[in-house]
Amino acid sequence: MEKYDFDLIIIGAGPAGLTAGIYASRAKTSTLILDIGIVGGQMVLTYEIANYPGVEQTSGFMLSKTMKKQAISFGCEIKSNVKITHFDCSRKVKKIIVNDSIEYNAKAVIIATGGRPRSLNAKGEEIFKGKGISYCATCDGDFYQNKEIIVVGGGNSALEEAVSLTKYASKVTVVHQFNYFQAFDFAIKEAKANGKIEYIMESTIVGFEGHEKLENVIIKNLKTGKEHYMKIDGVFIFIGYEPNTEFLKGKIDLNERNEILTNDDLATSLDGVFAAGDVRKKNIRQITTSVADGTIAAINAVNYIQCK
Amino acid sequence: MLLQTNLKHIATEDDFNKIINENENVMICCGRMGPMCLPVYDVMEEFENSGDYNHVGFRDMLFDNPDAHVIRNLPECSGFMGLPFTVYFKNGKVVKATSSIQSAEQVKEILDTEFK
Ligand SMILES: Cc1cc2nc3c(=O)[nH]c(=O)nc-3n(C[C@H](O)[C@H](O)[C@H](O)COP(=O)(O)OP(=O)(O)OC[C@H]3O[C@@H](n4cnc5c(N)ncnc54)[C@H](O)[C@@H]3O)c2cc1C
Fold first, then answer.
1. Could you report the per-residue pLDDT of A189-245, keeping only the tens digit for each?
2. CB burial class (10 A; 0-12, 13-18, 19+) of residue A101?
3. Nearest CA in chain A to B102
4. Complex prediction ipTM
5. Which residues of B touch A234 (CB under 8 A)?
6. Is residue A277 within 6 Å of ligand 1 at its C-beta?
7. Do the beta carbons of residue A25 and residue A6 sit within 8 Å?
8. Could you say which of A5, A88, A100, A136 is catalytic?
9. CA neighbours closer than 13 Å in the CB half-sphere of residue B104
10. What CATH number is given for B8-114 in this structure?
11. Is the CATH number of domain A119-237 3.50.50.60?
């Protein structure tokens, strides 16, 4: 097996990981960032970013590209589209193996694996992804011209996307598990004022059915337990995000939502392992807060390495 | 009408016919510069640069290019409702097609199975 040593390994190349990479490399710490997907993380999912200070307007893709370029310019190495197949950070030397073929050792690790859209985990969901089930209204909305669709969720994203999907769809039914929405007043008002939107409250989808593509869903009323079929052309799911921490279970302290617990220095329960960004327990999840976390984690990780 | 990626692009129906007829193994990703498409182009670039898939031709094509009907209207893509449409050709014939975002692991599995 190939083996490489670094001072610091950062897992995740979203804004938190890339910022940590910029700070650590600039401090002359040999740094490697590993990512299971494309560099940029959830930023890549964002067409337009208008709230990143100092940059009036940009796309998530462009901001990711600039952050990546900045990190590399300071000497940071980045490997994307690699899978961590072994993670042992319980000892002084942290060992990470990717793709079962390359071993990386480091003195400290920052976990910045962020989050991913939550799935319903309903029967048939995997089969109909891209064939009637979508998690991106901007990407797939125009496949549903004059069609009837469902939006699952009751938060800001769900209601805003329900409104935006009425540009294409003839009817949008919002299916939500509670009898109230967890969205800002203006988002609720805008959705309620839209004549194309209907609501099925206190309900969820428990099954997806069809042949070549999605044709029916099974909707369960969570109060009565009754289930009914609904013929539908598409379903957009916006029920929040969950942290990418599966590979850490039993190895590091997580809370009941599987978010990493950290102290003020962003140190985790494992010595020499820090966490930054959306993956850790915190209230506000934005690019700016991830960038701040990346900074704090990197400076503390570099101090940790220098003191050892 | 081309995508802004580092992949080689298919611009016309002629390009499409040439690439699938002159190469044994071809992977074509047809999409836009959107969140579900970018990760697939990135995986393709990674595999193309790795040297492990020199036997595969990696190409992209803009979904809104009128000539992209060669992908959009394939029977194998008839149920697709999510970008990108990714199609794998062996000796000019479709052997696999996927809709929406795919991970490196998913793409690798298809390449290793279909283009052994
Ligand atoms: C649709 C959408 C729009 C948004 N719009 C805005 C906005 O306008 N402004 C704003 O400030 N914020 C916005 N956000 C929130 C913002 O994008 C996130 O808060 C931010 O990206 C979190 O950064 P992060 O680095 O902590 O995690 P992420 O961005 O989630 O990055 C984590 C990275 O870790 C990688 N990873 C995951 N698991 C593993 C693993 N096991 N091994 C290796 N790598 C792994 C992932 O591939 C990913 O690249 C938006 C989010 C979404 C989804």
1. 999 999 999 999 999 999 999 999 999 999 999 999 999 999 999 999 999 999 999
2. exposed
3. A37
4. 0.85
5. 81
6. yes
7. no
8. A136
9. 19
10. 3.40.30.10
11. yes
Distance CA A146, CA A168 (A): 6
Query: What are the boundaries of each domain within chain A?
Result: 2-116+241-307, 119-237
* Fold adopted by A2-116+241-307: FAD/NAD(P)-binding domain (3.50.50)
Exposure string of B86-95, with b = 16+ CB inside 10 Å and e = fewer, is: bbbbeeeebb
| A44·B80 Cβ contact <8 A | no
Q: What is the amino acid identity at position A91?
A: R
Strands (E), chain A: 2-11, 31-34, 77-79, 84-88, 94-98, 102-111, 115-117, 133-134, 148-152, 171-175, 197-200, 203-210, 214-221, 227-231, 234-237, 241-243, 273-275
pLDDT > 70 fraction of chain A, expressed in percent and rounded: 100
In chain A, count H helices and then E strands. Answer: 6, 17
Domain A2-116+241-307 shares a fold with domain A119-237:
yes
For an interface test with A, give the residue of B50, B76, B100 to mutate (most A CBs within 10 A): B100
* C-beta A288 within 6 A of ligand 1: yes
β-partners of residue B93 are: B90
Please name the residues in contact with A206: beta carbons below 8 A apart, sequence gap of 6 or more. Answer: A122, A123, A218, A219, A220, A227
Whole-model pTM: value is 0.91
The tens digit of pLDDT for each residue in A76-126 reads: 999 999 999 999 999 999 999 999 999 999 999 999 999 999 999 999 999
pLDDT score, position A47: 84
d(CA A196, ligand 1 centre) in Å: 32
